[in-house]
Design brief:
Distance between the termini: 33 Å
Strand order of the largest sheet: 9-8-7-14-15-17-16
CATH architecture of the largest domain: 3-Layer(aba) Sandwich
Number of domains: 2
Number of helices: 20
Helix content: 40-55%
Shape: globular
Length: 421
């Protein structure tokens, strides 16, 4: 076991003695919640659904949602009833109530306490400093990545995979060009190898989440990963950029690229946006119609051109998650960037399509990367091996690159690898 693997194992062992997610959430009521004490989620929205799923994963089954929208009375959400606030007051004075709203956290906290609910049984209050971390842990971007790594490894563990590839893990670490990247690398590997240990999660978010570091725990209005692709301490936009967007979705990152160019007072030359999902592609066409010199390509990006099976966004966990999948519901064309753009001098490539596509897409752009040495922003989180496989792959194509890691969201997805000269 090399010293880096020892560090990862040591961090996991130290964190196992600290409070887990349920203890951080329920405090002294953890065992009661596990034993079946009634748990109510106050807020039947997206965060409520994420908290409900995370609680179930951890062995706690909420009995109902409460919502101030009385029109939802008698309905269901996440397969449990939705009750009114009056019903909450009448029937759940002794229940454990979890506030499940970012936007209305302060007024919902005030509403419950003014109504006489015991503060000790009102969880995720606005005044509790752990509340935003609990919300981030429950987000789909955190829980799905933890579960996805576990599923990918099958009967083995994530740590088994890192041990098996420990020389590659160490080699990639040595390629990273600043201390922040190296510390992030170890922290993320330890967190994922721990199966999402809550102590390691909160340390990771506090120390490495760019939106938390820049904006605090008040949520950034927008999609932070889109913003930080082009607004960071690594990449600098230059005049006449030729930008390639792989996994362009509905044009969101085209828009943030154009906005970033405007802020930097530079004019880009051309944008190529690749999106294979039919629904997303139509939105991409619509949303980029007002921009100059944008070419939209209804195709995925791969190591070489062919047809592949694809699961469309409407079959995924959320509407961005169309993925190349051998059991997908449609067939799509995929192209290599070298073949699709043979005469284009490329200056910037962003790759973050759904699924573990990026290594193949990088291989298909090896000619462009070696020739033009464009700035790169690549998702380094889609697979258990992404964090070390992609840096090693890039270094093999262009050893001159300096490589950096940054974490660009409030949850566990969107750890991105940047490459510059």
């Amino acid at each position: 076991m090399n010293t880096l693997t020892q560090q990862i194992v040591g961090r996991i062992a130290a964190a196992e003695t600290k409070p887990d997610f349920l203890e951080a959430l329920f405090r002294g009521h953890r065992q009661a919640a596990l034993d079946g004490a009634p748990v109510v989620l106050f807020g039947a929205g997206g965060l409520g659904a994420e908290l409900c799923a995370t609680l179930r994963t951890h062995g706690v089954s909420p009995v109902c949602f409460c919502d101030n929208d009385d029109t939802r009375k008698g309905g269901e959400y996440c397969n449990i009833p939705v009750i009114t606030y009056q019903e909450l007051q009448d029937s759940h004075r002794s229940s454990l109530i979890i506030i499940a709203s970012h936007k209305y956290l302060a007024p919902l906290t005030d509403q419950l306490l003014r109504s006489g609910f015991v503060s000790d049984r009102v969880l995720c209050q606005q005044s509790d400093p752990i509340t935003p971390i609990l919300f981030m842990y429950a987000m789909i971007g955190s829980q799905c990545l933890i579960a996805g790594y576990r599923i990918e490894c099958g009967e083995r563990t994530v740590l088994d995979t890192y041990r098996e590839h420990e020389q590659a893990v160490l080699a990639a670490y040595k390629l990273l060009s600043d201390e922040h990247s190296q510390e992030l690398y170890i922290a993320k590997l330890a967190l994922m190898a721990s199966n999402g240990n809550f102590e390691l999660f909160q340390d990771f978010i506090r120390n490495f989440s760019q939106p938390v570091l820049q904006f605090g725990f008040g949520h950034y209005e927008g999609t932070p990963e889109d913003y930080f692709y082009f607004n960071n301490d690594v990449l600098t936009l230059s005049p006449d950029e030729v930008y390639i967007d792989v996994g362009a979705y509905d044009g969101d990152t085209v828009a943030t690229f154009v906005e970033a160019c405007s802020r930097a007072r530079v004019e880009y030359r051309k944008i190529h946006a690749f999106e294979p999902d039919p629904h997303c592609y139509q939105a991409l066409l619509k949303n980029t119609a007002g921009y100059q010199n944008v070419v939209c390509h209804p195709a995925g990006v791969w190591s070489h051109s062919q047809m592949l099976r694809f699961s469309t966004s409407d079959t995924g966990i959320h509407d961005q998650a169309g993925t190349i999948d051998h059991s997908g519901n449609i067939e799509i064309p995929v192209v290599s960037l070298d073949e699709a753009l043979p005469g284009e001098k490329v200056t910037l490539i962003k790759m973050d399509p759904g699924g573990n596509v990026i290594p193949e897409a990088v291989r298909g752009a090896a000619g462009i990367i070696a020739r033009d040495k464009p700035k790169l922003a690549l998702g380094a989180y889609h697979s258990v091996t992404s964090m070390f496989e992609i840096p090693l792959l890039l270094h093999g194509i262009c050893p001159a690159y300096k490589l950096y890691l940054r974490h660009n969201t409030y949850h566990l997805c969107d750890t991105d690898l940047y490459a510059t000269l």
